[in-house]
Design a protein that fits this description.
single chain, 586 residues, alpha+beta, 5-stranded mixed β-barrel
C-alpha cells in the first residue's frame, strides 16, 4: 500500500517540488483527453491530482476508471497550478499533485446519494449513515462537537471541578420520563435502569464531600421523540456544594461566554440577564422565550371590557384571558389570504378564532374593528406602541391556549418578517419556576423539574397550605428560544424532601423503598448543594446552525426510535430470553 505522507488539507506552496502520497476518497474526476484530473478528499481537505500524458497510457487508463468515492492512494510531485486556474475557495487551491503512481484501495459501487450534492432523503441518509457522515458538512459538525467538549472540560477543570463517572446500570426511580429497563440475568425478575440523568449519584457525591463535580454524561429517556429530542443523549452534568442558585448561575457564565467566543466570535456581556418564570410566561407565553426580538404579549382584558364584542364579553364572564401581540409592518405585508393562514395556524393550538386589526393612519381596520370605539382603538395603539402598517393579533381563551397560540404566532411572525438576524445569539436565565404542577390524569401533584428540588425559603410554609404556589430554586439557561441548560438547588433537608415525596403521592414506605439511599445520605451530613445540566447535543445544534438534533449525533434514532443503519431495536433468540427469565407475551 502507498501509505500517505500528507493529508489532503496539508499541502501548501511550500511543498512545491516535494514527492508526496495522499490517501482518501475520489471527490470528483474530469477527463480532458490528454489530462485526467482527480480530486482526492479526506476530512482535512481536498487536493487536485492530475495524470499527465507523461505518466503513460496504462496509468492514465487506470485513472480514467476511477469513480466517485473510490478509496485511492496517489503518489506524485507537488506543483503550482497554472496561472488563472487557482481555486481561491480551497486551502489547497493554488497547487496540485502531478501523479506518478496510483493504487485503488477500494473500488465502490455507485453511492445511493451524492456525497457532495444536495442533501438526500433523511431516511436514506440514516440508513447509509457511514456515507452521510463522510460529507464534509457533517464532519464539520463533529469537529465543532469535539471542540465544544474540550472547551467544557478545560473550563470546568480550571474552575476546580472534578470529572467523575457515575453508573450506567442503576435503579429505576420515578424521575419523570419512562426508564429504559435492562433485565438482570443473575437476579431473576429484577431490572437495572439506564440513567435519565446522573441526578441522584451526583447528589451523593456532594454528600461524600467532593464539592465540585462534572461529567460529560450519557443519558437515556424512553419518551416520545421530536426534532430536538433523542432517546439517548449527552449532557454536561454539574454539581456544587455550599451554594445558592445565584452561585451556580454565576459559576456557569464564564463557560457560556467561552463557548460563545469560540463558536460565534462574540461573547455575551456578563452577568447574563435574569427573568422570573411568571414574568416571561406573561410577556412571551413561554418559559424559554427567544429574546432576539420583541413582540411581547399584552393583556387586553381592561380594553376588551370597554367593547361590545360578544366574544370578549363571554371570555371575561368565564374568567378567560384576552391577550395580543403587535407585528411591525405585517399590516402592509400580509394579504387577506395570509391572515386567514394565521387564523388557521392559531387554531392548531386550540383557539376558536383570531382577531386581527390592521393599523392605518387614522383608524384600525378588520372584520371586528366596528366593535372598537375610537377611544378603545386609541388605547390599543398606545398599549402596543403601534405604528401605521402594523398588525394587532388578539386571542381570547384560557391561560394555556392564549400562551400557546401567541408564543407560536410570535415565533412564526418574527421569522416571516425577518425581525432578527438568524445568526445572532441571545442568552438569558429564567428563574423561580413552580415547584409542582397538578396532574389531573394522575390526580396528584407532579414535579415541574424533578422531585429533588429545594423550594424558595420564603415559600416553605406554602407546602402545607397551597403547594401549587410554591416556587422552586430552579433556573434554566435559554439561548435563542431553546432550553440549553437546566438546574436547581437540591433539597438537602430529609424532612423537606420527605414532605415533597408525600405531595407527589409517595407514602413514607414507598419513598424509603425507592429513594432510601438518598434519604439516608441526606440524613448523614448533606451540605446545601445544587447543580445544572447542559444539553450538549442541543448546544452543538445551536452553534452548528442546525435545526434537527439528529444531525449532530453520530448515530441517531429516527422519530420512531429506530436505527435504520443497524436495524435496532431487533429481536433476540429464545436462549437469550431464557437466560434472562423473560417470556414474551403471545
Amino acid at each position: 500500500m502507498l501509505k500517505r505522507t500528507h493529508t489532503c488539507g496539508d499541502l501548501t506552496l511550500d511543498h512545491v517540488g516535494q514527492t508526496v502520497t495522499l490517501n482518501g476518497w475520489v471527490d470528483s474526476w474530469r477527463d480532458f483527453g490528454g489530462l485526467v484530473f482527480i480530486d482526492v478528499r479526506d476530512r482535512y481537505g481536498l487536493t487536485q491530482c492530475v495524470f499527465e500524458p507523461e505518466v503513460g497510457a496504462e496509468l492514465q487508463a487506470a485513472a480514467r476508471e476511477l469513480r466517485s468515492e473510490y478509496v485511492v492512494a496517489i503518489r506524485g510531485v507537488v506543483a503550482p497550478r497554472l496561472a488563472g486556474k487557482e481555486n481561491p475557495n480551497l486551502k489547497t487551491g493554488g497547487l496540485e499533485v502531478r501523479a506518478k503512481e496510483l493504487e485503488v484501495l477500494n473500488a465502490t459501487p455507485t453511492p445511493p446519494f451524492e456525497i457532495k450534492g444536495a442533501e438526500a432523503n433523511e431516511e436514506l441518509r440514516l440508513k447509509y449513515r457511514y456515507l452521510d457522515l463522510r460529507r464534509p458538512a457533517m464532519q464539520q459538525v463533529f469537529i465543532i462537537r469535539h471542540k465544544m467538549a474540550q472547551v467544557m472540560r478545560n473550563t470546568m477543570t480550571a474552575g476546580g471541578f472534578l470529572e467523575i463517572e457515575t453508573p450506567i446500570l442503576g435503579r429505576s426511580t420515578p424521575e419523570g420520563a419512562r426508564d429504559f429497563l435492562v433485565p438482570s440475568r443473575v437476579h431473576a425478575g429484577h431490572f437495572y435502569a439506564l440513567p435519565q440523568s446522573p441526578q441522584l449519584y451526583k447528589q451523593v457525591l456532594m454528600v461524600a464531600g467532593f464539592d465540585r463535580y462534572f461529567q460529560v454524561a450519557r443519558c437515556f429517556r424512553d419518551e416520545d421523540l421530536r426534532a430536538n429530542r433523542q432517546p439517548e443523549f449527552t449532557q454536561l452534568d454539574i454539581e456544587m456544594s455550599f451554594v445558592e442558585d445565584e452561585d451556580v448561575m454565576t459559576a456557569m457564565e464564564p463557560m457560556v461566554a467561552s463557548l460563545a467566543q469560540e463558536f460565534t466570535g462574540e461573547a455575551p456581556t456578563l452577568p447574563l440577564p435574569r427573568f422570573e418564570y411568571h414574568d416571561v410566561m406573561e410577556r412571551y407565553g413561554n418559559d424559554r422565550p427567544d429574546l432576539r426580538y420583541g413582540l411581547e404579549l399584552k393583556d387586553l382584558a381592561d380594553l376588551a371590557a370597554e367593547t361590545e364584542f360578544k366574544v370578549f364579553q363571554l371570555a371575561l364572564e368565564n374568567g378567560q384571558r384576552i391577550r395580543g401581540i403587535c407585528a411591525p409592518g405585517a399590516g402592509q405585508k400580509y394579504s387577506r389570504k395570509d391572515l386567514d393562514g394565521l387564523t388557521e395556524y392559531s387554531a392548531t393550538f386550540g383557539t376558536k378564532g383570531l382577531v386581527w386589526l390592521k393599523v392605518e393612519e387614522a383608524t384600525l381596520t378588520g372584520p371586528t374593528a366596528k366593535f372598537f370605539t375610537p377611544e378603545v382603538q386609541a388605547k390599543l395603539r398606545e398599549r402596543f406602541d403601534a405604528k401605521p402598517g402594523d398588525l394587532i393579533l388578539i386571542v381570547a381563551d384560557s391561560q394555556a391556549v392564549t400562551s400557546q397560540a401567541l408564543t407560536n404566532l410570535r415565533t412564526r411572525l418574527a421569522t416571516e418578517l425577518k425581525l432578527y438576524d438568524p445568526k445572532s445569539f441571545h442568552y438569558s436565565w429564567v428563574t423561580r419556576f413552580p415547584l409542582l404542577h397538578w396532574d389531573a390524569e394522575e390526580g396528584r401533584y407532579a414535579a415541574e423539574h424533578h422531585p429533588f428540588t429545594m423550594p424558595l425559603a420564603e415559600d416553605l410554609p406554602l407546602l402545607e397550605t397551597d403547594p401549587a404556589r410554591v416556587r422552586a430554586q430552579a433556573y434554566d439557561l435559554v439561548i435563542n428560544g431553546e432550553e440549553a441548560a437546566g438546574g436547581t438547588i437540591r433539597c438537602h433537608d430529609s424532612k423537606i424532601q420527605s414532605k415533597i415525596f408525600s405531595l407527589l403521592g409517595l407514602s413514607p414506605e414507598q419513598a424509603e423503598e425507592k429513594f432510601g439511599f438518598l434519604l439516608g445520605a441526606l440524613r448523614n451530613g448533606a451540605p446545601p448543594h445544587g447543580g445544572i445540566a447542559f444539553g450538549f447535543d442541543r448546544l452543538v445544534m445551536l452553534y452548528a446552525g442546525l435545526t434537527n438534533i439528529r444531525d449532530c449525533i453520530a448515530f441517531p434514532k429516527t422519530a420512531r426510535g429506530t436505527d435504520l443503519m443497524t436495524g435496532a431495536p431487533g429481536g433476540v433468540d429464545t436462549r437469550q430470553l431464557r437466560e434472562l427469565n423473560i417470556r414474551l407475551a403471545d
